[in-house]
Write a structure and sequence with these properties.
Blueprint: H1 2-12, H2 20-23, H3 31-43, H4 48-56, H5 62-76, H6 80-103, H7 109-122, H8 138-164, H9 168-185, H10 187-197, H11 201-208
Helix pairs in contact: 3-4, 4-7, 5-6, 6-7, 8-9, 9-10
Length: 211
């Protein structure tokens, strides 16, 4: 929402009306470049105010920003003592994030933001030897892959369940493991079963891959 408001505010400057052509380019804008700049401004901020301002202008939600910081801190903060101090700030931010989730007390938000921005900027010397690229959070990629797999299993379970007169959960638990064995050992028979069950190419690939 913050990103959308910032974009619309910038585009609306000096205008009474926005058209589709005014905003069409936003769909292809490179969001990763924005987060890379935000991380750089937090990690290497010259002041705590600069780090806080970077969070305010971030183009991702705060939970995602925390993941980006967590992933990249060890690659930029090389000194073990400084890294421990920076990670302590991040841990405190995560504690307040958890308190917000459990109590819905949004007054804790300022501590969440302060610790993961100004706290980190102030906890190390901000000296890094050589150029270090920023990395996409591995935990997010892992969660995305597991969600995609769960969605695939659910969809296949529904199709198998309709043919075999069982629930989708039982099909995923009891039928799919046997289908994997068939697909990986006798693809010809597997394809015949796939046609009968109405499985698409993505599902066939999923069953054929060894895991």
């Amino acid at each position: 929402m913050r990103s959308a408001i910032n974009d619309l505010q910038a585009l609306a400057q000096g205008k009474d009306r926005l058209t589709f052509e005014d905003v069409a380019w936003l769909g292809s804008r490179d969001r990763k470049e924005v987060i890379f700049n935000i991380l750089r401004r937090i990690f290497y901020a010259r002041s705590t105010i600069g780090a806080l301002r970077a969070v305010d202008e971030a183009d991702v939600d705060l939970d995602m920003l925390l993941e980006w910081i967590y992933e990249n801190l060890p690659y930029h903060v090389k000194d073990p003592k400084e890294l421990a101090a920076a990670m302590e700030m991040l841990a405190l931010a995560d504690i307040y994030r958890g308190r917000i989730a459990t109590t819905q007390n949004w007054s804790f938000m300022r501590y969440f933001i302060d610790f993961m921005s100004a706290g980190i900027a102030a906890s190390w010397s901000r000296k890094s030897h050589g150029w270090t690229p920023f990395r996409f959070p591995s935990r997010i990629m892992s969660m995305s892959r597991s969600k995609a797999e769960r969605d695939m299993l659910k969809t296949m379970g529904l199709r198998i369940g309709r043919k075999c007169h069982v629930s989708a959960d039982r099909a995923a638990r009891d039928v799919i493991p046997f289908l994997r064995v068939i697909f990986q050992n006798d693809p010809k028979i597997g394809l015949g079963i796939a046609r009968w069950l109405g499985l698409d190419e993505d599902m066939i690939t999923f069953l054929s891959e060894k895991r």
